[in-house]
Structures are given as C-alpha cells and as structure tokens.
Amino acid sequence: MTTTSDSTGEAPTPRQQAVLDAVLGLMVESGDQLTMDAVARRASCSKETLYKWFGDRDGLLAATVQWQASKVRARRYDRQHLDVAALRDSLRGFAAAWLTTISSPTSIALNRLAIAHAASSGSNLGRLVLANGRFAIGERLKPVLEEGREAGLLDFDDAETAFRTFFGLVGRDVQIRLLLGDRLPLPPAEIAQDAERAIDQFLALHGAAKPKPQA
Amino acid sequence: MTTTSDSTGEAPTPRQQAVLDAVLGLMVESGDQLTMDAVARRASCSKETLYKWFGDRDGLLAATVQWQASKVRARRYDRQHLDVAALRDSLRGFAAAWLTTISSPTSIALNRLAIAHAASSGSNLGRLVLANGRFAIGERLKPVLEEGREAGLLDFDDAETAFRTFFGLVGRDVQIRLLLGDRLPLPPAEIAQDAERAIDQFLALHGAAKPKPQA
DNA sequence: AGCGACCCGTAACGTACGGTACGGTTCGCG
DNA sequence: CGCGAACCGTACCGTACGTTACGGGTCGCT
Where is the signal peptide (chains A, B) (predicted)? Predict the structure, then answer.
C-alpha cells in the first residue's frame, strides 16, 4: 500500500522529489527503458524504498505526473483593466504557455507514457494527465473568456465550446505530430508567432463587433 | 528478413490480410496484450509463419498500419462544379470523415501503439501513421483549398497553413482526449454538427469576401 | 553505548514475451 | 504414389523486468 504521494496525497519530501525528477529525466532521455532498476540506479536509492514510498510502478508513475503538474501550476493571470489590448495579452499568454508546454520534452514523454498506459485497461494515468493538462487550462481560461464577454469584448454562447475552438486554433496538429515522433522545431519566436496568429483568428471568430452592445 | 509486406511492399495475400485483421482486432480489444502468441492464436497460424512473413514484431506492426491505411484510402472527391455550396460540401465531407476516423476504435488503438513505439528510439511506426493520417489528408485537402482559391471562394496565402487551421478547427481536443482514455461519445449526429461548425468557422476566416476579385 | 528506524545495494524469484526449433499434417505436382 | 513446400501447433530458450528479501550501514534518540 502506498504511504505517500497517494492519488490525493500530500506533497513529496525533498528526497522523494529527487526520485521523481530522476523518473522525469529517464522518461525524457529514453522513454522506453523506464524500469524500476533504472530509476533506483539514477536516483541512488534502493528498489525497496521505491516500493515503500510509491506502492508499485503505477504509483510511482502517478506520483511523477502529479509532481510535474505541481511544477507547472501556474502563474495567475490577475484580472487587469481588461480592455481589448489586455484581453489579447492574456489570451496570447495562454496560447504561448500552452504551446511551450506541449512541445517540451517532458510533456511529450509524459503524454506518451499516459497514452501507452491508457491502452491497458484500468489506469488513472490518462485521466491524471488530462486533468492537469487539457482540463486545467480550460478551467483557467474560461473565466478570462467570460470576463471578456462581460466586458463586451467577446461574443460566444458557451464558454466550453469557445475554449475548444481556442484549443484547436492554438494546438492544431502540433501535439499529435510531436507525440508520433515528428521533428517539429518550435523555437520561442515561432511560438510567439503562432500564438499571435491563433489569437487573431480567435478574435475574428469571437470578437464582439461592438464593445458593450447593451451599455 | 521480411519477404512480404515490406515497408515498400506489395499487397498482402488474403491469408495475410486475415492475420493483419486479427492484429487489428486484438489491438482494439485490449491494446496491451498484443503478443505474438496471441496473434498466432487469434489468426490460427503458427508463430513461425508470422516470423517468416513479417520478419519480426515491428514488421508485423508496420504491415498492420499499412493494411489499415489501405482499407481507409479513400474515396475521391472529384472536382465538381465548385460553387460555394459544392466547396462547403467538400470541406464538410473531409471534416466528417476525419472526425469519424480519429474517433474510431481502430484509429485510437493504432495511434496509441505508434505513440508508445515512438518513445523508443528507432521506429518508423510513428512516421507511417503520420504519413497515412495527418499528412495524407493534408495532401488530399490542399488541392481542394487551392481550387477554392482559384475560383475566388477562398482567401489564404499558404495552403499548408490554411490546412493546419482547418485541422485544428475540426479536431480541436478530440484526438488527445480519446488517446488519453477520455470517454467522448461522438455519434454521427454530433460529428455532422461539429463538421458544420468547423466549416462555418473556417469560411469565416478564409472565405473570400468577393468571389473572383480580379476577374 | 545500545537500539530502532530508515535506507542503500544487491541478489533472488517468478513470469511474460520475443524469437527459434521441431514434429506432424495438408496440398500441389510430377 | 512419392516428394517437397508450406504451414499449424507446441515446446523450448533466453532475457527483461516487476517485485520481494536480505545484509549492512547511517542517523537520531535515550
């Protein structure tokens, strides 16, 4: 039975964090040979300790996913004045952050692992990755969209649907291509450019023609 | 050494097709336990035959990907009269077909396998899936887009970029969610609706304001 | 100093699976 | 009929890996 880093668990100790970082390192370097032996060797700990701390292999992987998620979580986009320029900045920030995330080696390795795991039957790895990726950013972006709507800057019926459009315009084919091993260099300059284009398109679809139509 | 169904290979014999269908069936039912033993049992053939025909496990998987691709490939969208209604129909057909494909159990299983494989180093599985999925549809759609532009119905600079926008608007978060195990029922009615919405959005972004501006 | 908790390193066990070998059967052909 | 090619079913081998067990070492507490 796991003692720490359970699915609802508390924060890992620094030593445990070092172990989880070792897992992340191994995943990125060579996603396949992620064996308990390799983790123990890399983290300079015994396998017995791994099993005491994390229960079994799946527990270790789950803890790793949550550890990585806790590292990314997330600068607040505090609601500023919210004119159209501020809204653009906010959306552009989200888009660039998302592209940076999904193109990072860590995210690629983690998603590959979770997807491979989802092929087997029961496993919350996929659910964990979804909750901390796709759905987390959705819940953080939707309030921004709704504030934009209240300010008369955006026009849409359903925030979820609008977010999915945003998601598609930003991500396009990037994630699936990277997951399938396509070389797709995404330097910061191109990320900025892609984010800009995506926001232009999103505002073309959902920007309100007239600010505050009923004001 | 593989004798048949090489990476450039000729069509598999009917018996080989039955074997590859057995692989597809196993993949869909329980993607993990896709062992050579299980394939042989399901296909009622000996492992020795599998190795003679396909070389090794990777050869079998590659042949399976190509077999599936050959089954999907692809009704022609012959260039019809090409007014705006015909263009809409054509795009809507592409969108619905793509959504149907990526939400099919076979595609999900195949992509999971290829993604897991891409975590290991050398492997053309990911490349194969990309070539027969994302890039195949791109090459088939771009001529339609360009005809639409020539007819003054569409406005864009780069067909590749326009296609990626199309791809994002159609696919959104569907594929990644399905790959990660999210339940996401996508009945034909919803596919049709999603395709319609995606085409509306695409035309809002790239529809030419005035047909044949220089005519 | 003595004791217990914690942990490292390594060895050991069981199993699953990719790959190979072999006997037996069917089928086409001279 | 006689023969060889193709193939099925099964047994077998080697290895990799998850998991457990054990010996020894370090640290904190009394």
Answer: none
